[in-house]
Design brief:
The protein is an alpha+beta fold. The protein has 2 domains: about 5-215 and about 340-420, Zn peptidases (Aminopeptidase, 3-Layer(aba) Sandwich); about 220-335, Alpha-Beta Plaits, CATH 3.30.70.360. It contains 12 helices and 19 strands. The strands form 4 sheets. Strands 1, 2, 3, 6, 7, 8, 15, 16 and 17 form a 9-stranded mixed β-sheet that branches. The protein has a 4-stranded antiparallel β-sheet with strand order 4-5-19-18, with no helix packed on it. A 4-stranded antiparallel β-sheet has the order 11-13-9-14, with helices on one face. Strand 1 (about 90-95) and strand 2 (about 100-105) form a beta hairpin. Helix 10 packs across helix 12. The longest helix is centred in the C-terminal third of the chain and has 26 residues, at about 295-320. It is elongated, with a radius of gyration of 24 Å. About 50% of the residues are buried. The structure holds zinc ion. Zinc ion binds near residues 1, 145, 179 and 207.
Length: about 425
Amino acid sequence: MRNAALVRPVPVLFVVLFAVSAASARGQTADIGSRLLQDPAVRAAVDSARADEARTIEDQIRLCEVPAPPFKEAARATVYADAFRAAGLQNVRIDREGNVLGVRPGRSARPNLVFSAHLDTVFPEDTRVTVTRKGNVLHGPGIGDDCRGLAVLLSIVRALDRAKVQTPGTITFVGTVGEEGLGDLRGVKALFNETLKGQIDRFVSIDGTGLGISHIAVGSLRYRVAFKGPGGHSYGAFGIANPIHALGRAMAAIADLQVPASPKTTFNVGRIGGGTSVNAIAFEAWMEVDMRSIDEKELRALDARFRRAVEQAVVAENARWNQNSPVTVEMTLVGDRPAGSTPAGSAIVEAAVSVTRALGLAARLDEGSTDSNVPMSLKIPAVTIDGGGRGTGSHSLEETFDTTNSWQGTQRALLLAVALAQ
Ligand SMILES: [Zn+2]
């Protein structure tokens, strides 16, 4: 998902200005949007994307009513693969990880642009996924994040075909699995490390609503940390090391960690648990910890200090009691999303800004944690763009998507696809 709260208005303005001035200095991709719109075929495709928006919204609803819980995206993947085939994509397949791929060949195989959206949701298996509609507003879990992206990909394929747009490079359309939460980007990781290893030149993910362009990938590391000991009666066994006390020591040390404001680096103990009774020394206590940074080096440095804090807490708790029934700790990495960025002055970001402005829309750069984290960490040009419309309540059962002018997002995505398949 994209996190709207991550948007930083003031630096963003600066970055946009920087992007535009750097582009005009080089004159490379700064005007690609307006130049492409002068091509009658591209213009026809852009117009057709708008005319087709009702069908795009129908697809959005239809796909969203097929459940896609974490690690169980297969049903939606099958429906999506069928939609790829119906749209005329070639070599449609589902890879080992569960990603759906379909190819729209260009005049040559390279550059190969991957245009993607994610299949999975954050919602468990038994969630009611019916979509309801009131006026312009759709209600349903996942309706914006990321059924919108999935539907826009299909619309791009149809519009390019109707207008007979032939691109020099090839576009591979992909529905990825495992973008959310504990999915830990498993789909896009498999795409880059296995399925299309060495064959992706540019990458765009459509994820989120609105019209933002995300070029900074917030990396994260997430742990489940479990402290264990023999446990016992709070009075009778008093004097043995206590897993909850060890947890408390670790948390106090983590709370005191210093991190830089820039590059922004954060930590959070998000959940804790353990113990069985007020009058029992616990045999287990656990916490879940999330650490983030837009800088991979800072993230790794914080990780090392966090681990040291946990280990020292265990040593201190055991030293306090000096008994032969010590507390032990197990740190399980449950999330590893690499940090990265695509420079604001790079061709792909310039192209995204250019096509947005060519359509008379305001370009806004921001940051996020999405499938683009993986290519950005590999230094492969990548951006994540919003799919248009307006969304609320992402990751909640009350998620909504306002379709007012949502065609703008479809047009922008389409024009970007053409601009990057050159
Ligand atoms: Zn998402």
